[in-house]
Amino acid sequence: MKRLFCFGFGYCAAALARRLQPLGWSVAGTSRDPARRLAMAQAGVEAFDFPLAEPDRALAGASHILAAVPPDSAGDPVLAAHGRDIAGRHDLAWFGYLSTTGVYGDRGGAWVDETLALAPSGERGRRRAAAERAWAACDLPLHVFRLPGIYGPGRSPLQGVRDGTARRIERPGQVFSRIHVDDLATVLLASMTRARPGAVYNVADDEPAAPADVVAYAARLLDLPLPPRVTFDEAPLSATARSFWAESKRVSNRLVKAELGITLAYPSYREGLAALVRLSA
Fold it and tell me: Taking the domain 3-151+178-205+253-260, which CATH number applies?
């Protein structure tokens, strides 16, 4: 039986687990939240606190490992706590690291692909770039996935439109890429079955778009009034949110399509949001 161990069993790892379990995989993972660990166990996922108290036992039989814990000011927590436990495992077929397209920095709305040199312009991107380099220096079958904004059930502009908190924030030239969490799971599974150690993949849909356009489309799907239009300077954004808005780029997904044969279920936000509305009907 194949076994996936996820460091940081959150939104993305849960979507991957739902794909793997019907195929006969066993899945385990970590969470610092006791309530989350209980929910994992109820979903058939073996749950562990982080850091692992007994890493040899927890990781025993893991043929695939996913690291989904963001780095902090001290570096990558998984590498610091368990790098030695993971590196050099001869039974490990695949190690996936979830990074961010923030490692490319601000590109003024231009297209980016995996051949570009990294040029992070914010602290979040710099930490991720450093973590990518640190994992690459380990003896691992490393696969890096650079992710833009992730949306899906319970995490989309639909919630803000419904509760009246959404705003159409307008900033000339601003575009974001995004990916539905189920399409991300498709990419991860394809990589796991066609491993290429050293691979780096952008994971995004086909249509980068202005955030205001996405919010407006969500409102039309729900047949609700358009949220108010505000300028970026007027928008009530947190410091973290503003750091995302400091960068504008279009993320190319050509490599995952060409190499992994991916067909996206949700090639743009339109298909993705429409599916979420149907799901909640």
Answer: 3.40.50.720
